Each structure stands twice: as C-alpha cells, then as structure tokens.
Amino acid sequence: MSQKENSSNISTLLRKIKSKPLDRELGFGRNVTLDGRLMNPDGSFNVFREPIGRWDNTYYHLVTMPWRHFFLLIFSFFLLLNVLFSGLYLLIGVEHFNGVTLGSPGHNFMQAFFFSSQTLTTVGYGHISPNGLVISLLASFESFLGLLAFALMTGLLYGRFSRPAAKIVFSEKLLISPYKVGKGLMFRMGNASKSELIETEVQVLMAYNQREEDGSLSRKFYPLGLEINKISFFSLSWTIVHPLDENSPIFNFSEQDILDANAEIMVLVKGTDETAQQLVHARRSYSGEEIVWNARFSPVIERAPNGVPRVLTRRIGEHELLSIESV
Amino acid sequence: MSQKENSSNISTLLRKIKSKPLDRELGFGRNVTLDGRLMNPDGSFNVFREPIGRWDNTYYHLVTMPWRHFFLLIFSFFLLLNVLFSGLYLLIGVEHFNGVTLGSPGHNFMQAFFFSSQTLTTVGYGHISPNGLVISLLASFESFLGLLAFALMTGLLYGRFSRPAAKIVFSEKLLISPYKVGKGLMFRMGNASKSELIETEVQVLMAYNQREEDGSLSRKFYPLGLEINKISFFSLSWTIVHPLDENSPIFNFSEQDILDANAEIMVLVKGTDETAQQLVHARRSYSGEEIVWNARFSPVIERAPNGVPRVLTRRIGEHELLSIESV
Amino acid sequence: MSQKENSSNISTLLRKIKSKPLDRELGFGRNVTLDGRLMNPDGSFNVFREPIGRWDNTYYHLVTMPWRHFFLLIFSFFLLLNVLFSGLYLLIGVEHFNGVTLGSPGHNFMQAFFFSSQTLTTVGYGHISPNGLVISLLASFESFLGLLAFALMTGLLYGRFSRPAAKIVFSEKLLISPYKVGKGLMFRMGNASKSELIETEVQVLMAYNQREEDGSLSRKFYPLGLEINKISFFSLSWTIVHPLDENSPIFNFSEQDILDANAEIMVLVKGTDETAQQLVHARRSYSGEEIVWNARFSPVIERAPNGVPRVLTRRIGEHELLSIESV
Amino acid sequence: MSQKENSSNISTLLRKIKSKPLDRELGFGRNVTLDGRLMNPDGSFNVFREPIGRWDNTYYHLVTMPWRHFFLLIFSFFLLLNVLFSGLYLLIGVEHFNGVTLGSPGHNFMQAFFFSSQTLTTVGYGHISPNGLVISLLASFESFLGLLAFALMTGLLYGRFSRPAAKIVFSEKLLISPYKVGKGLMFRMGNASKSELIETEVQVLMAYNQREEDGSLSRKFYPLGLEINKISFFSLSWTIVHPLDENSPIFNFSEQDILDANAEIMVLVKGTDETAQQLVHARRSYSGEEIVWNARFSPVIERAPNGVPRVLTRRIGEHELLSIESV
Questions:
Q1: Is the ipTM value over 0.90, yes or no?
Q2: Helix (H, G, I), strand (E, B), or coil: what is residue A244?
Q3: Least CB-CB distance to B78: which of C46, C130, C144?
Q4: CA D21 to CA D24: how far, in whole Å?
Q5: A125, A233, C186, C294 - which has most CB atoms within 10 Å?
Q6: Domains annotated on chain D, with CATH
Q7: Residue C71 contacts B, CB cutoff 8 Å
Q8: Chain C interface disruption, residue of B76, B125, B227, most C CBs within 10 A
Q9: What is the Cα–Cα distance from D238 to C145, expressed in whole angstroms?
Q10: What pTM, to 2 d.p., does this model score?
Q11: Nearest CA distance, A99 vs chain C (angstrom)
C-alpha cells in the first residue's frame, strides 16, 4: 500500500500537532483497518455484525428497506400465502366448495385461489363458500391469518412512517477555503425537510494513519475543532468550518500529506425534528480524495419572487475554484 | 425602504448597548432579508426548502394538514380508487359479473362502482360477484389494495393523534408596561391544553437592522434577557417580562426607533407534555408594529363558582392602556 | 377562614427560617388561592383551563378515560352510527333491499339495522344487499365510514396502551418520625409496575400561607430538602425523608402551626420506564391534616418462600404510632 | 451460610479501601438479602412487585412475552371467542340460521362455529346468515367484538415491534487479565443489532457482604471505576476494564475473598438506538463464581473476505488462560 511508504514524513509533521488523539473511544476494536474506510460515504458504518437470533434484524430490515421493495415484499407475501392455501384447498378437494364448477386442474386451482384471496382479505363475497368440516376449518384459519397479517402490515407501515430521519443534504466535497486570515476546511449542509430541525449539533472526526515511535503504522482519531458547532435552528443551509490553525491536527498538511495518510473525515450531526419531536441523527464520511483545495462555495440561498428566502438543496455542493493568490 | 433611511440614528443608539449580537447562530445564510420577517406570526419560518425526493414531504403534509382537509383527502382517494377500478371492470366487461343486470352505460358503471366499493372496503355482500379469470384477479388485487390503503390510513390517523403539540395561546400584542422601577417588554401565554406542561422554558430573540461601520445595513439577532425563563409547571398563564434596563439591546429605543429598525421579536417555547411525555415546542413572532406602548395586561385568571382557579385563554391578550404618568 | 386569624403567630416563626421561597416559579398566577389546594390528592392540578377549539381535548379525554368508559363509549358510538344509518335506509325505503321481507315498522327497522351493522363492520353476509342507486351509494359510504371508525379505534387503543404511566403507590399519610438525632418528615412510595423504573428523582414542594410585613396573607412555595432525591433503580420501595433541621422551612412548626398555615405538600416524581424507555411522571399532594406525628412506617418488604424479596404495595402506607419518649 | 464465617478476614481488608459504598441509592429496602443475587444473570431484578390492579401488568406481559407465546395466545383467544359464541348460537337455536342443514349436535356446533368465525373475522361469506332478531343482534355484536379484538391485536403487535431493546451480547465470564502494569477486571460486550448504538455508557456496581464494627454482616454496594465508561459508537465490540489498583474496592482481594464475600457484579449499559432514536438499556449480572482468574479475551473482530471488519458475536466470551508468570 502506497500510504505505508509515504507516511514516514507525516510522523515528523505530527510531532508538532497540539491536539491529542481520541483514546479508543469509538467502539471499534484494535484491528481497525489501516487502508479501509470506517464509514461509507452515506454515513453507515463499514462493518458487519453477526446477528444472534434468526429473526433479530427482521424488523430493522422491514422498516429501513426502500418503499418500493417494501410494497413488492408484502404483495409477494400476499400472493405466496394465497398460493399456499390454494394448494391446500386443492388437496382437500375443490368439490367441497359451494358455487364452484369443476374443470381442468388450472381452472380448479384458480377457483381455489379466488376463494383463498377472498378469505385472506375477508372480502368474502360468498359466491364460493366452504362446504365440509376440514375445508371450513382451513378457511376459518386462513381468515384469522389474514387479520393477523394485516395487523402486522399496519404496524410495519406505521413503524416506517414514524421512523425519525433527518433529511440533510451534504456537499459532495470538502473545500479548503480562505477563512479569516488563514484557511479553513469546510463543508456545507442543507435542510431538505419540511420539518424544522432544532438545536442542531455537529461533530467532526478525522482518522488517519500515523507512524508510531517503533515505526509501525497505526490509525488515530482526532476531533476537528469547529468555528460553530451548534445552532438554534437549521433552517436553510449551514457551512461548517474547521479553522486550519495551529490547533488543527492537520495544520500545515499538504494535499499529498492527507492523501498519503489515507485520511477519512467523519461528520456526525444530531438535532431535534420538530414535527416528530424526536432526536435525529445524520452522518457523512469524506475521504482525502474528496477535498478540493482552494475553492469557495457558491451562494445557495436565493429570494423567491414572493420575497421568501429559499435554499436550493440540489445545489448545496456547488463551488468555484479560486486563483492561487486568493488563499 | 423607509427603514434604510431612518435607521442611521439607530446605529448611534446601538453603540451604547452592552449585549452582544448572536454570531450567525440561527442557521440562516448571510442573505437574510433586511425587510422581511424570518418567522410568520404563527411561529413557522418564512422560508422555503427545496425537497430532494418526490415523496419526501408527503408524510409531513398528511400529518400536519387540518383534520377537515385530511378527511376530505382520504374520502377523495377512496372515490378515485373506486372510479379507477370501476373503469377497469367496465373495460373487461360487466357481463363477467354474477348478479348484474346489464343496462345503459351509466347503469353498468354504477354496478361496477358498487362492486368496486364492496371489494375495496372488503364488505363483499356477494350479490354481485366476479365470474371469470381476469375480473377475479382484478378484484383480488383491489381487495389487497383496500387492506393496504386502510393500513396506511390507520397509520396516518395514529400519526396525527400522537403528534406532540403544545396548545399555547399567545397575547396578540407585546406590551411596554411599568416593571419594578422602570419598564418591561411583556407578552402573555396561556395553556389551553388539558395536559400539563412541565419544565417549560422560554427564549426570546430580537432581530433588527443595524448600520455597520461602513454604512451598510445588516440584520442582527439579539437574545432578550428575561425576568424568569423557566417554570416547573405552566398551569394557567404566564407573563414573560424582558426588563428594559441598560442590559437590554433596545434600552432607550423610542417607538419610532423600533419601527425604523424593522424589528422582529421571536418567541421560542419548549416544555414537556405530560400526557404524551414528549418534548413540545411552540413559537410566536411579533413585529415592531405589534408593540403597545404603556399598557398593562388585564387579569385572566378567575375563580370558578366551585373555587377552582381557571384561565380564560380566549382573553389572554386583553390589556388596558395606561395614562402617561404611570410609566 | 380560621387560618387567617391564627396564622399571625406563624409569621413570627417564619422570620427564623433560612430557606427562601420560590419566586413565582410555578406557573400559577398571583390570584392563587389561600384556602384551596393547588393539587388534588391524586396529583392532578386543581385548576381549569378553557380550551380554544371544540375538539382540542377530545384525544386527551379518549386516551385518559377509564377503560370501562372507553369501551362503553365506542360501543355506544357503534350503536348510534347504526341507528342513524338504519333511519336513513328506512327513509329511502327498505323495499330497495334484496332479501328483506317487509313487515311492521319495527321489523323493517331491525332489517335496516342488521344491514347497517353488517355494512359498518364490513362483515357483509349478503343475505340482505342494497338494490338501487341511492341505497347502494349510502351503503358504500357507510362501509367507508366503518373502516375509518375502525382505524380511529385502532389508533386510540394504541394511544391508550402506549401512554407512559408510572405505577407508583404512595403512603396515604406523611409521617413525622425519628430521624438521626432529630425528626424527619417522611412518606413512602412503592413501585407496583412490572417494568423497572430507572433514575428516579423526587422533588417535594410545600405551600403555606404566610403573613407579609403589611399584615396581608400570601401563599408561599418552599422546596423541601431531601436526604436522598435520586436513586438508580426504584425497584421495591423508597422512603423519602425531609430532615426537620434548621434548614427546613417548617423547622419548629407545631402540629397546629401547620394546620393553621393551611399547608400543602406536593410530591413530584420522575423516572424512566424501562419497558417503554420513556420518561414518566407521578405526583401526589398531601394536606396538613394528612401528617401523622410521631409514627414510623412498618416493614413492607418481605422474603417470598423462594427467597425472592417482594414489596407489599397494598401495605405501603402501614405505620405504627410511637410512644412520646421515642421522639 | 459459609460466607458468614469466612468473611471476618474480609473486614480487615476493607478498612484499607479508599472507595466509599453507595448509601442506599439503589432503591432496595434494608432487608436486602445477604445470600441472594439482586439481579438475575440476564439483568432482570430478582424481586417481586405486588401489582395494584388486576389488569395492571397485562400490557407489560403481552408486549414482553416471546413471539411464539404471543401468537399462541392470540390464536387461543380467537378459538375461545369462537367457541363461546358458537355455544350462544346453539342456545338460541341453529334453526335461526339461513343455509344451515340441521343434524347431530356435533354437526350443529360446527355450523355455529363456522358462522361465528366468519362473523368474528368479518369475512361473512353469507352462505350461512342469521335469521331472527336475537341471533342477528348477537351476530352484530360479535362482528363489533371482532373489529375491537383486531384493533387490540394491531396495537399490541406495534407495541411489540417498536419496543426499544439493545441487542447486546455479554461475555459469559469476567476475566482478571493483565492490564498496564497491574491487573484489571474485564468483561466484553458485542453489538448484535443491525442498528447503530450511539453514545453508549456503562456503569458497573459491585455488591458484597461486609462485616460491620458490631460484627454483623451487611451488604454494601460499590461503584467500580472504569478505564473508559462512554464511547461515541458501540459498533463492534468493547472490552470494559476495571483497573484493580488501590482505588478499587476489591484491591488485593484473593479469589477466595471474593467467593466468601458472596460478591455480585452488576453491569448497566445505556445508549441510543439509532433506528428508533430511543434510549435503550441492557443489564447483566455476574457472580463471584463467574470470574476467571488470569485469562485474556481472544480476538473477536476479523476481516471478512471483502475487507469489512466484522464482529463474531457468538464468540464474544472466548478467552484463553494465561500461564502464572504473565500476571
């Protein structure tokens, strides 16, 4: 790996840094990868956790999967249950239904299928009805299952609705921009939700490889100090600034230094969603390659014709490169 | 804009003020309007946020729209689905129904419509029933959709019920009233909910235009200090007082000064609703025009015949003007 | 009122007290009653709040009313809706039903009623079915209303289930018991819920009438200092002790002094219910008459035959009177 | 009890300990057992709380029972209700049903049972339908009950889904391992949930019998200081370390000392589940017998073939014994 060879010169840099690394406070083991990301760009952790029980993560998956998949899944489940019960009715014999004209196996199966679906959804027109002990018991059980499945579906739907989520858009890049008399590492967030986000707080962590006294490489985590890390309302957009002064763990790092150290910048946002009145979190991870040096974010708030300020969340990442002299 | 011309004399006033403005802590960009309100009188922000996805704000709208609109919407949705499926049944042919007498197109449509509504609601009397493969499959799918739509409706209804909301009434005006040896800026809130509001906290912010050293106008935000900003229980009414002493950012402002500065006073309330045990927020915004000088709130708590104190929330804003000498 | 005459000697006592009253921090107006209780014994506030909108408190009532009333209410609502629609069907004419034999008005009404109930619950046997445009439309609308009412009922039931509530039993009396070298004002709480109560915190306030410098009576609120006011787990029982030392606002008060001052002791408990993981609150109010002087709580925790300690919540208030000398 | 005789030598040890016991802060009475555990190994408290009302703990049980039991219970309830109503229909007389052929009592019961189940689930085919006042009224009531029962079931299912729970696995043993220049008492936890656990915090308490000045035994609670007690993310695994230095209440205790003192180590974990955005708790209790002296945890995090680190939650407790010299 290239960063192993190149990072010896970083260790020299690091001795001058005032800020201290976090001491194993992140809940990852010591085997943390030197060459991989801890966090995926979308903020999910790049780890795998072995579940204990078979059903342990079922609810998690059902509640977090995309809506399209969810609807497809429950429709498939509805079809599957219907086919299963149709098969059972066929086994018992379609002649035990009132209102069914016997015919080809396909015809019989469809009759059983229609009866099953009318039972499962409790629509029960009654032009087909069970006639006989076993088939009536099975139909009775199927309608009970129908109610149960429907109650589960209602619960899942509400679970999905009410899942608190911050709809925050992040700029795709981190910028190194002029800031006060020096420079700052900046990214921008926009609020894309109708709901207000109250008491929003941001924490930024940086991970990079550092050469130890004994020459081995180890991955260290540094908190990055921010100009402002909390705002009362996150109403439109917010540019978060880490001043690149002598307190920064990457003070005086060159573009190459950051690439060599295999840096990862992790952003953790938390706030209170006003509509749900619940704490929500958002995360984003940037790699060293996603830093644009010497650029500035373009304006993202404009006045609508009716005078109301509005944020163009789709253009949250727009920036312009600056000429060398401006830095 | 008139405030631009008149506010030069304000900048002189402002140099004498001890309190310091908030430094961009509000999550609005730098383009914040000089002449518009940040907050509407009802406490919603006067901003527009571009959504990212098409469905992003659907749940928000469905949960926050007035009940009347909500019921109208779901009834329309029920009608629309019925009409849609009626059309499909007509296309397949009403002759595939048992129990239907063919007639005029209008008659046929109504038969299809009744079958559809009996399927969607799963009432399924059965005097009309599907007869044929395609129409039976369609009816089966419609009854599944009916269950799904109903599960969605249940979830939305609960989402609406359980949405935490503070039912706080605010006085329509801010008063400048006698307070201790000087004056105070006051407003009054009443609790109109059956549920107790615990550990209620109030924050008041003021925004106004201020002339910078370079002569340009910029909008600054000041926190207004309060006599008491937290109470254990917000049981009946509460008069919130900002003492107009030398610590106030508007100390010595005249009525005209405040109008010229295009002032906006924003009230942020938070507390815990005891029934839902959830944090709730309320907001209110007042413009400079909504300040009544030299007035006093009328009593709003009275004893019911049974001796129980009660708050007249409808009269929370009642006040009387004072003669000049009393201030 | 007797306490007005007798409380002049209290004002002398009060001058010796070190603790300071709370300054209007309770959210009651200045008109707070001198002779009434602020809190009912069950912890609800003895106040009335005028609602703003007509439906404002409907959800609150539906969620907090006793289960018996709730079931009665929804059953009555079901009957009412049925009777209403039965009337409408009668108006249109029962002859528009298939499967109905006409008869006496009573007979006709019952037929309409059964059809209505089969429609509202979507059971739809179909032995009675609508025949005609108007009656079919009305039945379609009724089945829609049925689904809606049922969705509302589901939401309300879940709202009732999930309402966080601390199941805490309080001793019926406050005791003045020997405590360390002096005396203490004590009450006892027991946890009667299966769920653990975590990080439980208690606050005790006392209100009593105090004569001002100008001779007028006013009601003051004092916090009562507690030996321990927070525990990690409220697992079985907890005796809360206010030491009656020189820091107590009622140090040296006699039994008569407390009665004369029309004292009220308010207990506010909060903790986290572990099953729901929600903050829950409980309150209790004691009047001066509910103080038992010179008594001690009887043991309330015993070992079950299997060695498990258990709390006898029904006997949480049991105490024994002590002979004079023991105090 | 053996620990009573052997613990006199412990009291000598204890005089040298710097840390102070917790003073009744745990919410257990004074009768706390000297020989029993306060907490079961799974973290539930080893206590019994007498409920007040008959239905008080019903919701708690329905929401916390295993899924298998829950499904069995509601199915039994469905059967029971059906049998009950079948009996009532039999009493009124099956001849009041349309579409029923009379026969043996068993046959008649089954016809009543099928009608009942079709009514309760609102499937209502209609091949059997009520004919007569009393039986129609009863069927109407049953369908209402069916809807109610189903609404309850929906509420319970959602209550079960949404119950916040930390899926944390604990090592089965506590280890005494080499730590820095001395030793540490350690256990290991793994996160087995798909959901992230944020701001996870651990508290460890130790209870043991201690001989008082007067020779009597009493059970004391000591907090155990931890190397790190809070992490930002509990992503994979976490080894919690209590350094056995002079600040430890069990500094210099031998294996026998701990057994004699009948020690119990209680672990309390709390964190925020990211998917539900709710606080969750987990607990674990270890007895003195569950301490392994001079051992070290085996690695539990490995790299998957795709480079992603993963935690083997099933092997969270794996450890290896160390040779004597290593400690």
A1: no
A2: coil
A3: C144
A4: 9
A5: A125
A6: 2-48+164-326 (2.60.40.1400), 58-161 (1.10.287.70)
A7: no
A8: B125
A9: 54
A10: 0.84
A11: 15
